[in-house]
Amino acid sequence: MNEGSDAHDHVADQQVLLALARRAIGRAARGQPLEAEVPDAPSSWLQTPLASFVTLTTQGALRGCIGGLYPTVPLIEDVQLHAYAAAREDPRFPPLRPEEVAGIQIEISVLSAPEPLAYGTPDDLPLRLRPGVDGVIVQTGLRRATFLPQVWEKVPVPKMFLEMLCEKAALATDAWRSGKIEVFTYQVEVFEEHVAPHLPASP
C-alpha cells in the first residue's frame, strides 16, 4: 500500500471515529445506554489501545470534555466511551439534551504516551514547554490535572498556563515553583467535524 493510500485510510478512520462519537452523544442525550460499536474489519489503528479526549462545543462554546491520559481499551472503544461521558458526565455542565445534539461540534484528540519532563530549577520549567505543541500534566500525590495543547490558544504564556493548570489540580497557583511537582508532556492528533450538522436529532 502506498503512502497516499495510508493517508486516505487514516482520514477514513478519523471519520469513522467522528461518526461513532456522534452516535454515542445521541444515545447519551436520549438517556439510552451506550452500546459501543465495532465496524467490520477495523484498521489496526482503531484497534490499538490509545487514550483520547472528546470535546463538545456549541457555537464555539465548550459544552463538555472528557478523556483519559493512559490507554486502557482500543481507540475505537475509548472514543465512544468518552463521547458518551462528555455528553452526560462533565460536572461543569448539565447532561446534553436531545434538542442540542444537532448543533454540537465534536473534536477528538488522540494522545501520545505522556513522557516525564526533566527540568533543572523551577524557572527552567516554563522554558521547556512548547506552546501549541505540548499537552501538559502536573501531578503531586493524588492530585493531577492536564491541559490539552489546544488550551495554548487561549493561554499562550507558559507561566500563566502552569498557574492555571496547578489551580485545576486544586494546588496553589505557584505550586509549579516548588520543584516538587511532577510534570509530563504529550502530543495529540486532533480532528473534528468539518461542518456541524444541522439536521434534527434522531428520535
Write the layout of secondary structure elements.
Layout: H1 3-29, H2 44-47, E1 52-58, E2 61-67, H3 75-88, E3 104-111, E4 115-116, H4 125-128, E5 135-140, E6 143-147, H5 158-168, E7 182-186, E8 188-192
Antiparallel strand pairs: 1-2, 1-3, 3-8, 4-7, 5-6, 5-7
Helix pairs in contact: 1-3
Q: Can you tell me about this structure?
A:
By secondary structure, the chain is of the alpha+beta class. It folds into 2 domains: 3-112 and 188-192, Hypothetical protein ph0010, domain 1 (Glycoprotein, Type 4 Pilin); 115-186, Hypothetical protein ph0010, domain 2 (Dna Ligase, domain 1, 2-Layer Sandwich). The protein has 5 helices and 8 strands. The strands form 2 sheets. It has a 4-stranded antiparallel beta sheet, covered by helices on one side. It has a 4-stranded antiparallel beta sheet with strand order 4-7-5-6, covered by helices on one side. The radius of gyration is 18 Å and the shape is globular. 31% of the residues are buried.
Corresponding CATH superfamily of the largest domain: Hypothetical protein ph0010, domain 1
Percentage beta strand = 15-25%
In percent, how helical is the residue content? 25-40%
**Which class of secondary structure composition applies to the elements?**
alpha+beta
Question: Could you give a short account of the major beta sheet?
Answer: 4 strands, antiparallel
Uncertain stretches:
196-203
What's the end-to-end separation, in Å?
A: 41 Å
Say how many strands there are: 8
Taken together, the total number of domains comes to 2
Q: Globular, elongated, flat, extended or rod-shaped: what is the shape?
A: globular
Biggest sheet, spatial arrangement of strands = 2-1-3-8
Order of helices and strands: HHEEHEEHEEHEE
CATH class of the largest domain: Alpha Beta
CATH topology of the largest domain: Glycoprotein, Type 4 Pilin
Named CATH architecture of the largest domain: 2-Layer Sandwich
DSSP summary: helix tally: 5
